[in-house]
Every structure is written in structure tokens, then in C-alpha cells.
Design a protein that fits this description.
Two copies of one chain form a homodimer. The first copy, chain A, is α+β, with helices and mostly antiparallel strands. Chain A has eleven helices and eleven strands. The structure holds a DNA duplex (30 and 30 nucleotides).
DNA sequence: TGTTGGCACTCTTTATTTCCGAGTGCTAAT
DNA sequence: ATTAGCACTCGGAAATAAAGAGTGCCAACA
């Protein structure tokens, strides 16, 4: 059953007003501001019906109306005006993006920090990585008891580790091991690195000193840490800006949920795919702690078959329109810079460097 | 002018009581609990004098007494019983330490997280690095337009970067560059990498494609990011556990100061040296935002001429004794594991790996 | 001189009451 | 269907009252 045009406008007015005052909104205010030509009494009737239909509710008899989750949902889906960013805003985002991506790389910690600053809400960023494999091993002989393992991954990430042994190894052994590992350990998944494989490699190399074990455990570590989605939360404290979190206990609950990794956040379902900004309103969230907050999520292409997710958390009364616009823009910016082509975009002169090393949070 | 023995005991009793109730403590409570054989009236007289001397104050006439910064200072210096950790506690810390240090390495983010969990206060970790130099360059030829830069630093850290060029380079060129960089760019500081040096290297290599520039800018980046002290804050939200931060505004101020890097925190003076735990009480802090909080700091040996700092922030009414004991233990544990000897401690079998790569926050 | 019980006084906290007004729902008129 | 009017409700603020915790001081005492 569809809502009349007028009901929609009224609902929108309520949500808009509530979003910026955080106070229940009354019929009179709507009649005056929302510029539809009827009096408060009429509005009252409509409001009563909207309450009956479950779009609004009132904290107590004789208070203004407040949107329900259902009301927000409709608002987000149909009513809200898709906000465009002002020129200054988008330029600001671009500037920061360039700045970040120049010196460091796409560390999710930067992305989340940026999102949080932009929206003034706590933000979380995470990436899923496709199954990654090792493409190439290099062992660099440094000294009799020291060498460096360098590993190139299929997502074009490089990882390394300095190994110091209690005993000496000669360069030949190192070279032999490198060859063996390149032959046996590349292009295979974590699960394929079995004790059997390790054992046989060890024998082929005549390695009696456990170096094979060291290298393969590094390989395992790298593969598992690369495939595990990494997450980073920042700006938890911004919650305290919101009047709904003036209660320290409530604030604390959510904040510690967030800082505690809260991977449950938006890490399910096919959220990564859609290029649309998604909104999860109050009870639509799975995590108990988020049942009366909202989450706005955008996903971006992080290059190399990796997708990233940016999420922002706030009260249900959150400025969906503005947040969505900002995240959309940010995600697009990231995709444009990180994603897509193997070939570096034209005009990147001093930025031939595409990827550096990374450490997970 | 020294305090009488009894005054000291009374002061200690006040501080102890206040630390765990967070409420002004009255004469009666002391008379009953602090087991010194005199009545509340006597205590009252003593309290009045302690107030006059500036060790205590009362929020208003007819309220109990609360320690002043001066009072806490005396307490910390002389009165508090240096707490020893219980066996369970120290075992717990050790266990976590081992766990952390095994898989990842001494990333300050882990250290700060650990400190925060242990003390239940926000914590910050940071390190100063001595001037670091590059000890060795390796360039790994991957494909015609791709190579990896691997750099070994004087602090035994390894950094790497994958470089993809818009054009082809042959392996000979890569090798030539590696030789040149090893000859010209090792064991020198950031400031010694001048445009002149870069230019002359470029000419010697017959490099017309700007590869020299890429490599040297990476070198610069690595050197500067390694020498800049890195800091990491965690557990800001734990502030909300403290009754003194029930006021959201107050909490918010401090939290955003902390999350905002708050490098001003304890990053001055020769704090890094002393092996003692330091306490900064309320107004003793330099940062305005910390004027009514306290900071407890321990420093540890992070190996390779690097020292690290662990700091914990809380209300002036903080459990100095417990926090100090925990930090002391934690710092010692870290020093033992990271610091000192070049040689890996005996008995580390599966842990031959000493250092992995690192990324700064 | 130092200690102690007693007591009046102060000032905060908490509970109770009162009051005000925003906003509603309903009804009757348009 | 819309609207003006009006009685009614209910939460929140302000005002008032009561309760208690703790002090300071005095006078008595060892």
C-alpha cells in the first residue's frame, strides 16, 4: 500500500527535522517549515496515520514524532534528496586523497581515518583479499648466518623477513633453497603447504638445520595474513559528538564494540560487490550492539582483485544523505586511484611506485 | 618540613581510599579502616593541617578530603607500597607477550594495545629511532618492466617496494644500479642523499628513464619514516570507565586529544633513558589537555639502539601502584625479548626469526 | 600538649511538589 | 477533506523540603 504524496512529504519533513534537531518534531513546526499548504491540524491527522502505519512513533503521548527504522528506511530508499557534494568538499577530499596516497599507500588505516574525519562519525575500513599465492621467492644472502626472505605475492604485494641463524649457512645452500622454493611453493594455496611437502623439500635440499622450516613457516604466515581480511577502526571518539550518546555507558558499549575489532560489523554477505552505497538502519544490523545505530557502507576497488569496504557508524538519526555522498565520492576516488588497470594511469611521473610493503593491523 | 609519621599514614589512607571509591573521604572512614589507634576527631585535626599544607583539599566545606597533585606526588614518591604483581598476573603478561612477539613483531601498536588491556586505561606507545642508515641494497629483477627494491637498514629492519615501470629495463641495468646504490647510498644519512648525488649516480648508470630517481626517493622515504618516531594510541574508550569522565564533553576532549596523535604526550625531555617508571601527575603535565589527568610512563629497550616508551593515561586518581607495576613488568619483558644482545637468546628454536618487515602507523 | 566526645552548622544530594507548556486528539464548523 | 478551537496529557524545569555526611570548634580529659 503506497503512501500518498503528501504523507511522503510529511515523513520526509519529519526525518529531516529530526536529523538536525534530534528532538521529536511536532505538527506545528512541519506546517510552518515544510511549505505544503495546509494547517497543523491536517498534519496531525496525517501524522497519526503515519504512526499507525509504523513509520513514526512518539516517545510519549503529547510529544512530537520520531522516525522509526521503517520510516528511515523509506526515507533512505525514496525520499531523501541524493546530496551532491559542494565543490569545496569534493576538492578537499581529492586533495587529502592525493596526499595520503602519495607517501604511504592504501593502508586501510588511512582510509578509515579519512572517512571518519570526513563524516565526523566513527569509521571502519576493511579489505577482503582473494586467495593469494606466492609468485616468487628470493633469498638474499647477507652474511654467513643471515639472509633475507623476499616473497612476491599474486596481488603484487611484497613481503620480507630478515632471518638470523644461530649457525652458518653458505651461499650455495641459500641458492639451492631459493630454487627449490620457487619450484615447489609458488602458485599454491596455504592449504597446499603440507608437512609432507615441507619434508620432501627439506630432504631435497639436504637441509639439516631447519632452514626449510623457517622459510615455509614464513610462507604460511604470509599467506594466511594476506588472505585474512584486515580491518581498522578510527574516530570512535566522535560518537561522543552525538547527543544520543551522551550517556557514557551507552557510548562505552558501542565504542568498545568498535575498537574490539567488531569484525561482525559489515563483514558478511555480498556487501563487497555492489557498487552502491548501502545503508543498514538500526535493527537491520545483525550485531546486537548496533541494533540502535546505523551503518553506511561503500565499497571500492582496491586493485589486484581486492575490494575494500568503508563503513561509517552513527545514530539512526544520522545524516544519511551527506554521509552517503561523501562515502560514495571517497570510494570512487579510491577505486580510481588504486583499482582497475594494471598499467599505472598516465601522468604519474614521480609515482611509478605502485605498491609497497604492508603490515596488517 | 617533614610530615609526621602519622600524617603520612593518614595521607596514604586518604589517597588509597579515594583511589578506589572516587569519593571524598571523611575522617570517620579513616579512623575505622586505617587502623591507627585514634579517633575521628584527631584525624580531623590532622586532616585540617594536611589541607593547610596543600596535600589535600576539600571540594566544599563539609565534604571529605581529596588529594591534591602535591598529595599524589608525595604518595607516589614515598608512601605507596610498590606493588608486586601476583603470579597469575605476571604469567598472563608473559603469555601475551610471547604470543604477540611470535607472530608479529614489536609493532608499537601491539605494545600499546597490550598496555591498555593490562591497565584498563588508554595507552600510548612510541619509539625513537636513532639515526638509521641503509646497509645494503638489493634489486630483484622480476620482469622486463618490474623489479623489487629491497633495503636492509642498520636497525636490521628490511623494507621493500615493488616498482613497475611504463617501459622496459634489462637485467644488466638493474644490476648496475644495485652496485651503484650499494656503493654510494649505503651508510649515509637522509641529509646526505642530495640531488647532486642522485644526479651523478644517474649519469654513471646511463639511466635516462628516471629509475635512479625512483630508487633514491624510496631510500629517502624509508630513511625519513624510520627515523621519525612513530606513535600509536589505543583503548581511548577505556576512559569512559572512569567516573571522572562521565561528562561526555570532558571525555571527548581528552579522547580526541589522544587519538589526534597527542605526540606532545610524553615526547619531550630525556624520558627515554631512565629505566624507572615515571609518573606525571595532573598539572605536572605540559599538555593543557592533560592538566587534570595523570600519565605513567615506562621505557624499554627495543633493540638496535632504539628505545620505546609506553605511557598510560588516566585520571589523577589512578591506581599508580598497580599501573606502575604492570608497566614495569611489561617494559622489562619487552626489553628482555627485543633488546640487548645481537645474538638470539638461547632456547629459541622455532623463533629463529628475529625481525620482520614493518610499517609505521 | 595531644586526644577525644559532643554538638551545632554547612552544604550537597536526593526526593517531593508544583508549575508550565508543547503537543496531542477530538469535535464541531467550514 | 480541511481547519480552528479546546480540553487534556505528560514530561521537564523550577521550587521547595528533607536527609545526611562531614566539618570545625569547644570543653573535658589524660
Amino acid at each position: 500500500m503506497a503512501l500518498s504524496e503528501r504523507k511522503k512529504r510529511i515523513l520526509a519533513a519529519v526525518v529531516d527535522a529530526y536529523i538536525d534537531t534530534a528532538e521529536p518534531v511536532g505538527s506545528k513546526a512541519i506546517a510552518e517549515n515544510a511549505g505544503l499548504g495546509c494547517s497543523s491540524a491536517t498534519i496531525r491527522n496525517e501524522l497519526a496515520e503515519l504512526v499507525a502505519m509504523g513509520y513514526l512513533e512518539q516517545p510519549h503521548t503529547s510529544a512530537g514524532r520520531v522516525p522509526t527504522a521503517k520510516g528511515y528506511r523509506l526515507y533512505v530508499n525514496e525520499l531523501m534528496d541524493k546530496q551532491k557534494l559542494s565543490i569545496e568538499e569534493s576538492e578537499d577530499i581529492n586533495r587529502r586523497l592525493n596526499q595520503k596516497l602519495q607517501e604511504l599507500d592504501d593502508t586501510i588505516s588511512d582510509v578509515s581515518r579519512l572517512a571518519s574525519q570526513l563524516t565526523n562519525y566513527p569509521a571502519m575500513a576493511l579489505t577482503t583479499r582473494e586467495a593469494v599465492t606466492i609468485v616468487r621467492f628470493d633469498l638474499i644472502y647477507v652474511a654467513a648466518n643471515t639472509f633475507i626472505i623476499v616473497v612476491l605475492l599474486s596481488d603484487h604485494t611484497v613481503r620480507n623477513k630478515l632471518v638470523r641463524l644461530p649457525i652458518s649457512v653458505d651461499e650455495k645452500m641459500i641458492r639451492k633453497l631459493a630454487t627449490l622454493f620457487n619450484a615447489n611453493f609458488t602458485h599454491i594455496g596455504e592449504e597446499a603447504i603440507t608437512p609432507v611437502l615441507i619434508g620432501s623439500t627439506e630432504r631435497s635440499a639436504d637441509d639439516t638445520m631447519g632452514i626449510t622450516a623457517v622459510i615455509s613457516s614464513f610462507a604460511l604466515e604470509v599467506l594466511s595474513s594476506s588472505s585474512a581480511p584486515a580491518a581498522f577502526v578510527s574516530g570512535e571518539n566522535r560518537l561522543l559528538n552525538q547527543p544520543e550518546f551522551r550517556d557514557p555507558d551507552k557510548a562505552h558499549r558501542l565504542m568498545s564494540y568498535l575498537s574490539g575489532g567488531g569484525q561482525l560489523l559489515p563483514a558478511e554477505s555480498g556487501l563487497f560487490d555492489s557498487s552502491e552505497v548501502r545503508v543498514l538502519i538500526g535493527p537491520e544490523n545483525v550485531a546486537e550492539e548496533l541494533k540502535d545505530s546505523s551503518v553506511v557502507i561503500a565499497s571500492y576497488d582496491a586493485g589486484d582483485n581486492t575490494r575494500g569496504l568503508i563503513g561509517v557508524v552513527g545514530p539512526t538519526r544520522m545524516d544519511y544523505s551527506a554521509v552517503a555522498a561523501k562515502l560514495r565520492f571517497l570510494a570512487d576516488g579510491l577505486s580510481r586511484r588504486l583499482g582497475g588497470g594494471e598499467a599505472p594511469p598516465a601522468g604519474m611521473h614521480n609515482k611509478l611506485i605502485i605498491k609497497g610493503d604492508r603490515n596488517d593491523e
